[in-house]
Design brief:
The protein is an alpha+beta fold. Helices cover about 55% and strands about 10% of the residues. The chain has helices spanning about 20-25, 50-65, 80-100, 105-150, 155-165, 195-205, 215-225, 240-245, 280-330, 350-355, 360, 365-375, 380-385, 390-405, 410-425; strands spanning about 170-180, 180-190, 210, 225-230, 250-255, 265-270. The chain is elongated and about 125 Å long.
């Protein structure tokens, strides 16, 4: 998966307006008050406060030198790009001064040399701090993905993925599925604001969006690469519904495509931290999306395998029951009972193994008579009187019925009997004097 920023051409003005049916939705109002201030921070900030203070102090000292009042200032002492640019500008000015004014002597020369050395050290330390923060962020991303590898259900994977993504340096994350070019929100996480996350998810699910050329996400579908949207509030090709609910100013988005086919999207931003996302955020999201796709595929496959295993085990138990029935069946001196169509009835073992077995294929005629009377609420004694057999024989039949229907008690056996007869038709119930052949 490519991690390069896509340069999305500004073609919104040349594109035809969307069809009215696409734009016709009720105006969405965010449940949070929009942040009206300008954001100066782009990308992850320098977190070392002591280092930031030293940078500010050194740049202040440079600005107090004669002729340095117009040196480039520091817009934001948290922004790596601003810090590095300001330090480089100060270093270049000091170096030029030292090279062109060889007559500088004494205290001024010593101060100049000291400032040059300090600026150089700060440049190195800032670069090292940025490298450490990147390393820590990628380590956090690997840890988040490792935790997802331990999830064993698709539902839990979809619920936990946005929260784990927010542990990788983001404040908010959205996981969506893509079905036939339709974008549907699955789950949302917002740091320390579950209510807002629920509202964004609700709005997104209520307004699934068709991904066409009018959406930036169409670039993801076409190029199969992540995108960085730097000004979401003024970009006409964003999802207006989610944009209004989330108030997002900039975001990154990446495809989920474990087998080369895009099955979903990941969106993330840093709204709570009041900063814009940058190329580093795009690279982190791209790494997460690619690994998450494979983890999700593994979880889905594992879930299907477990389902198949359970079905096979159920079938094996059915075979074992049928084999047990075959081994314990009583030998009777009687002719095979023909079926309604005149064909001979299948052997009991074949009937037990048949798919979608009816009650007649699982129970003997006498057992059906017993369970039918059980379904009428009759006790063992009443059943014995009705069928003219001993109560001990009834208890034996009940025991066989529970085993064959895989029921733990009489009530469960009756429930299974009634369900099977509802699906396959009513089983015959003895009327009047029963057959004299006991089974």
């Amino acid at each position: 998966m490519s991690t390069a920023t896509l340069d999305i051409p500004d073609v919104a003005g040349s594109l035809p307006a969307r069809a009215a049916s696409v734009l016709e939705f009720r105006a969405i109002r965010s449940i949070r008050v929009p942040d009206g201030e300008e954001w100066s921070l782009v990308g992850e900030p320098l977190r070392d406060q002591a280092l930031r203070d030293r940078v500010v102090s050194a740049l202040h000292d440079v600005a107090t030198l004669p002729g340095f009042d117009n040196v480039d200032g520091l817009d934001d002492d948290r922004n790596f790009t601003s810090i590095q640019a300001a330090l480089q500008s100060a270093y270049d000015r000091l170096a030029d001064l030292a090279a062109t004014n060889s007559t500088i002597i004494g205290l001024v020369n010593s101060r100049l040399v000291a400032l040059l050395a300090e600026i150089g050290r700060l440049q190195l330390e800032v670069a090292q701090a940025q490298g450490r923060q990147k390393h820590d962020r990628y380590a956090a991303t690997r840890s988040a993905l490792s935790r997802l590898h331990g999830v064993d259900s698709v539902e839990q994977m979809l619920e936990r993925a946005p929260a784990e993504l927010c542990r990788c340096g983001f404040d908010r994350a959205i996981v969506s599925r893509v079905e036939e070019s339709t974008w549907c929100v699955e789950s949302v996480h917002v740091k320390a604001d579950a209510e807002w996350a629920s509202e964004i998810a609700r709005v997104g699910r209520a307004h699934p969006m068709h991904i066409d050329h009018m959406l930036i996400e169409s670039e993801i579908m076409r190029r199969r690469a992540p995108v960085l949207v730097r000004d979401a509030q003024h970009e006409r090709r964003t999802n207006a519904v989610i944009g209004q609910a989330s108030l997002s100013r900039s975001y990154v988005a990446a495809p989920i495509m474990p087998d080369g086919r895009i099955i979903g999207l990941l969106h993330a931003d840093c709204y709570v931290s009041r900063r814009h996302v940058d190329d580093e955020d795009l690279a982190v999201l791209s790494m997460f999306a690619e690994a998450f796709g494979y983890a999700f595929q593994r979880t889905a496959l594992s879930e299907r395998l477990r389902s198949a295993r359970n079905e096979i085990q159920r079938m094996v138990r059915g075979i074992a029951t049928a084999a047990d029935d075959l081994c314990t069946a009583r030998t009777e001196l009687s002719r095979p009972h023909p079926q309604a169509d005149g064909a001979a009835a299948p052997p009991p073992i074949a009937a037990s193994l048949a798919a979608n077995s009816s009650i007649e294929s699982l129970l003997s005629r006498r057992e059906i008579e017993v369970v039918a009377l059980m379904s009428q609420g009759k006790s063992n004694g009443a059943i014995a009187t009705h069928l003219v057999i001993s109560e001990g024989t009834v208890k034996t039949h009940v025991k066989h019925i529970l085993r064959k229907l895989k029921a733990s008690n009489r009530a469960e056996a009756v429930f299974r009997y009634m369900r099977m007869t509802a699906v396959h038709g009513s089983a015959p119930v003895a009327q009047g004097r029963p057959s004299i052949v006991a089974r």
